[in-house]
Structure formats: C-alpha cells, structure tokens
Please model this.
Amino acid sequence: MKLAILGAGSVGRAVAQLSEAHGHSVIALADSRNAIVDSRGVNVNEALEHKMNQIPLGDSSLEDVFECEYEVLIEATPTTLESAEPAFSHIKQALEADRHVVLANKGPVAERFEDLQVIADESKGDLRFEATVGGGIPIMSTIEDIGPRNIESVKGILNGTSNFILTRMAAKNLSYGHVLAEAQELGVAEADPTFDVGGIDTALKCVIIANVLSGGGFSLSDAKIEGIQHISNHALNLSDSYDLTIRLVGEVAQGEINVAPTLVSKMSDLSVGGTQNIIQIQTAHAGVLTLAGAGAGGGPTASAIFLDLQRLKRDYV
Ligand code: HSE
Model:
C-alpha cells in the first residue's frame, strides 16, 4: 500500500525502513518541520540520513503530504493529551479524504475516542491502532477476534520503561535516577519520561482498552494513576526477601481503570523482566488468556503497524 508517515521518531523511522520488506511503498515522510514526498517512492535511507545530519528530510510541507496519493496515513507523532492535537486533525483530514489511518499515537484514541468514531463512521477509510498498546503484542486484534462482549477484564504490564527500571533496580540495587538515565539512552522512553514513570503511558493504554471494550466513554481523567517514582531500593529488597517483587500494573475491570505499583509473586506470569509487556485477558468462558512480548521500541511497534496494514489489505484491497 502507498504510505504517508507522519513522525520520524523511533517508530516512524522503523516503519519507513521496514516498509519495502513488507510490500509497501513510502510516498511521503514528515517530521515536525519538513517533509519529503515522492509518488515513485521516497528514498527512505537518504532522507533519514539527512535527518541524522540535521538536514531537512526534504523540501515539501505537511500540506503536500496530504495532497499526495497516499492510501494509508501512519500517525506516529508524539502522544499529546486532552485535545490530542495535532494528531487529531491529521487523522480527521485523512479520514475526510476517505483514506485509511493507522495510529501509533495514543492521544486520539485515549482522549477523543467518540469524536474519532463519528469521523471514521462517515469515512470510507478505516481507523486502526494496534501499535498504541503493548508494542509488538497483537492485543487489539486479539480483543477484536475474541469480541469485547466476551471479555470481563484486562490486566497487565504495559510500560516497558517502568518495567525496565523496576527490574534493574531490583536486580542490581541501582538507584532510580541512575536506571532512568539508562532507560532514556535505550530509547524506549516517551519524549517526556514522566509519562512512563508517572504511570500515564500505562493509563493511556488502559483507557484505549476500556474504550474498545465499551465502545467509548473513557479518557485519561477516568483513570486512577500512581507511578513508580517513589519506589525505593529498600521496598524492592524487602519484597525480594518474601519472594515478591514490584511491578507497575494497569487494570481495566468493571468500568474502572487503575494503574499502580503492585506486589507480585516472583513466580507469577506478571513478573516479566526488562522492557517486556504482558497482558492477561479474563474471558467470559475461556479463562485467562495471556499474551507477552516486546512492548516498546521501534521494531516491535512498527510490527504492530504492519499487522494493521495487513488487515487493511485483507479487508479493502
Ligand atoms: N514508552 C513506552 C514504554 C512505549 O516504555 O512502554 C510507547 O508506548
């Protein structure tokens, strides 16, 4: 499919670089300042090399991107809260032009789910957002396949950065500040790491799940959120002596969204290490379904975007 990618951070770059191998063609790529548009296919490596050397991606504008013959808009700009702008307007413009939209940006589906549904319902284009939750784990497709009405609750570890910090603090007795700096160097943290460590990123993902399960009605303000900033090495060491550890757990159950550091048994599935994510789906008739895998980073998140593109191709091409 012909792709226009908005955002050239780790996710946008990974999608651009892996598109050809997945049978897609990037015909537009934009960062927050410039864009490159080429209907025969953008030379992705050259454009990204320019960006690395502080040279503009190309000499086109965002308006040029929206005027090109793209089939799918990939929205991979940084997540913003409340109005979820400018991502919301990007999506609106694409859907109103009857194009498909695939999101990595969590803001629009967490903060303005119903507004988006109205626009999507009037469009011939489809809106998909697998990459917004759980990186490479196909959680949205799984919920879609099982059917929201067959799901009672969802619980999991949905933030790779916090999990990396807690795992490493516990294993090496390193301070919170030291490990946070390491996590930032790894490049899995949000632009603003307070989203990760403050529990906001996990909460946004839980809100998106809640919206999908209930057909909308939730935004970040509905979530009870506590982050990991105040977890001490003492608390982790003490937990360890009882064969427990601390994980940042997000839960969607009975219309409530809770995110908080939680004691979990070191033997339990929830004690995944490093940047791994895990999601447990409590189904109505089939017990608990557990999905685990790489929850953050360019490659895994791009894989979720390619999964959405595959579904669009199956349903529309
Ligand atoms: N920063 C997030 C995480 C990845 O650490 O899980 C993007 O959702």
Notes: The two ends are 9 Å apart (CA to CA).
